[in-house]
């Protein structure tokens, strides 16, 4: 896989009809299953808890290895937070002074990134990779502590199951939600590891510190732990959980009222306005949608097999644990709170799909009910098959329609426009741009501009726009709507003001 990195780096597309798959070395597709199977074999033959953890860590990062092959960390939200981090580094300002900067009301992620940049002396785009690695480490550490409390045998397998089954559901990026989620997983690991102590003073202080950290990182993630405490109290009637519930709810509410008033005044009405518009339908659509590329369609078949086989094994094992009453109170409350969170998410946007990964953590414990007797051989064989076939999951991901990465060329073009374009005109400029590239620009600076891209409605006359920032991502997203933006530019009054061969900027001087 190291050789594949040298042959593939940096991953990019060269035309709007291109796919990332075309630029990944064949050595990667050979090295990925070999790496996964080799680590798997080590995990099966070792009884050391440390080696089990290292194996889980290695398999997790092998599964999530492709982002390291890009010049800048990819992700659906990566460009927005890259812009926000750069703006903070430039201005030292964490005030939500325009509608695009409301994330500054949860400043911990930005402060953490800034500290990492200062301490390491690395450029921001390299610190993003470091943050991505640290968040992944926290996730695996929390999962391993949580799972190893239930069994000392094959403790790496539930983490492997979670990594495989949740690959398309868990939002793992170097962004606030992922950082907050990793801290939440560590909170549940502490809960499980010291479950017999109920809520001792040291345990309570540690949980509260993590809860405050999560509450200053993301809006919704800390709600999950509050919900968990409600379920724990209803199940066990222990006053310690009621006291912690009241305390965490007070902390959360205080932060929303005094630290994040702008978000409170805008997000609550937005949630009410979009009631019943859950993001779950989009998740289902993305899971079962097909591509016209034959190789992708073929890979998607095996991708679905891997997901359903892993989910079926864990679900069956979890059912056995339920029937045999082998779940602890933490497991029960964790699962039920995730289920409730998921149900709420069917009515509210941004909540539902994010609960799927949290629900699957306790479900992954079902692996332990299948590690003995005849079931053990079937289990080990099934996971061997899943790890070999996981290559097709990555192949399917490499044919994703939206461009979730920013090349250094696109980054340079965006910064050229940030330095030289008059964003703060009396009349807000109308800009045609790829949605992800737009996120970087508005995250950095460009309040008041009207942006038009994939997520907007139909284009009006091209001459009514002031600026076009063209990337292959824009060309790809618009081609799905049968819009040839390149030809439209050639037949317009737009003039080229910047080009580096991959990204171009045009301005309409007739406006």
Which helices and strands appear, and what pairs or packs with what?
Elements: H1 2-8, H2 26-45, H3 49-63, H4 78-91, H5 108-120, H6 124-148, H7 157-165, H8 176-193, H9 201-215, H10 221-236, H11 239-259, H12 261-273, H13 280-288, H14 294-323, H15 329-345, H16 352-363, H17 374-397, H18 408-420, E1 430-433, H19 435-444, E2 450-452, E3 467-470, H20 472-479, H21 485-490, E4 494-499, E5 504-508
Parallel strand pairs: 1-2, 1-3
Antiparallel strand pairs: 3-5, 4-5
Question: Explain this structure to me?
Answer:
The structure is a single chain. The protein has helices at residues 2-8, 26-45, 49-63, 78-91, 108-120, 124-148, 157-165, 176-193, 201-215, 221-236, 239-259, 261-273, 280-288, 294-323, 329-345, 352-363, 374-397, 408-420, 435-444, 472-479, 485-490, and strands at 430-433, 450-452, 467-470, 494-499, 504-508. It is mostly helical. A 5-stranded mixed sheet has the order 2-1-3-5-4. Strand 1 (430-433), helix 19 (435-444) and strand 2 form a beta-alpha-beta unit. Helix 2 (26-45) packs antiparallel against helix 3 (49-63). The model has no long low-confidence stretch (mean pLDDT 87).
Short characterization:
The chain has 511 residues and is mainly α.
Q: What's the story with the biggest beta sheet?
A: 5 strands, mixed
Q: Fraction of residues in helices?
A: 55-70%
- Runs in which pLDDT lies below 50 for 5 or more consecutive residues are none
The SSE string, one letter per element, is HHHHHHHHHHHHHHHHHHEHEEHHEE
Oligomer: single chain
Over all CA atoms, what is the radius of gyration? 24 Å
Number of strands: 5
Instruction: Indicate the proportion of strand residues.
Output: under 5%
């Amino acid at each position: 896989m190291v050789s594949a990195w040298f042959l593939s780096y940096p991953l990019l597309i060269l035309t709007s009809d291109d796919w990332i798959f075309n630029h990944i070395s064949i050595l990667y597709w050979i090295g990925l299953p070999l790496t996964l199977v080799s680590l798997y074999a080590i995990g099966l033959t070792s009884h050391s808890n440390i080696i089990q953890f290292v194996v889980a860590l290695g398999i997790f990062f092998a599964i999530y290895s492709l982002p390291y092959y890009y010049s800048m960390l990819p992700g659906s939200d990566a460009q927005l937070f890259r812009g926000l981090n750069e703006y903070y580094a430039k201005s030292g300002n964490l005030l939500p002074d325009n509608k695009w900067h409301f994330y500054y009301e949860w400043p911990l992620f930005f402060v953490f990134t800034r500290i990492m940049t200062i301490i390491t002396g690395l450029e921001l785009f390299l610190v993003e990779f470091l943050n991505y690695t640290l968040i992944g480490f926290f996730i695996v550490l929390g999962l391993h502590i949580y799972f190893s409390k239930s069994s000392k045998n094959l403790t790496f397998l539930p983490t492997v199951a979670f990594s495989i089954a949740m690959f398309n559901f868990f939002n793992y990026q170097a962004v606030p939600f992922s950082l907050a989620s990793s801290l939440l997983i560590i909170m549940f690991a502490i809960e499980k590891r010291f479950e017999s102590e109920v809520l001792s003073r040291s345990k309570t202080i540690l949980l509260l510190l993590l809860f405050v950290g999560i509450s200053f990182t993301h809006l919704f993630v800390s709600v999950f732990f509050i919900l968990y405490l409600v379920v724990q109290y209803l199940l066990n009637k222990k006053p310690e959980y009621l006291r912690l519930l009241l305390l965490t709810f007070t902390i959360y509410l205080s932060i929303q009222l005094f630290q994040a008033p702008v978000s409170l005044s805008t997000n609550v009405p937005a949630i009410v306005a979009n009631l019943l518009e859950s993001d779950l339908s989009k998740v289902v659509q993305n899971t079962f949608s097909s591509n016209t590329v034959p190789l992708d369609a073929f890979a998607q078949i095996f991708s679905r097999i891997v997901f359903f086989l892993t989910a079926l094994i864990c679900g069956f094992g979890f059912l056995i644990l339920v029937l045999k009453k082998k779940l602890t109170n933490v497991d029960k409350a964790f699962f039920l709170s995730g289920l409730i969170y998921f149900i709420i998410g069917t009515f509210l946007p941004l909540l539902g799909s994010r609960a799927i990964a949290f629900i699957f953590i306790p479900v992954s414990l079902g692996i332990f009910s299948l590690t003995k007797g005849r079931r053990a051989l079937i289990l080990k064989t099934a996971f061997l098959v899943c790890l070999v076939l996981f290559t097709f999951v990555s192949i399917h991901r490499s044919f994703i329609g939206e461009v979730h990465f920013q090349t250094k060329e696109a980054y340079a073009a965006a910064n050229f426009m940030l330095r030289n374009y008059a964003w703060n005109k009396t009349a807000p400029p109308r800009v045609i741009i790829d949605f992800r590239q737009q996120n970087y620009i508005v995250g950095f600076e460009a309040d008041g501009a009207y942006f038009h891209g994939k997520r907007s409605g139909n284009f009006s006359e091209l001459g009514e726009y002031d600026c076009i920032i063209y990337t292959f991502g824009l060309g790809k997203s618009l081609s799905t709507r049968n819009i040839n933006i390149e030809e439209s530019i050639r037949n317009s009054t737009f003039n080229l003001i910047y080009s580096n061969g991959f990204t171009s900027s045009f301005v309409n001087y007739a406006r």
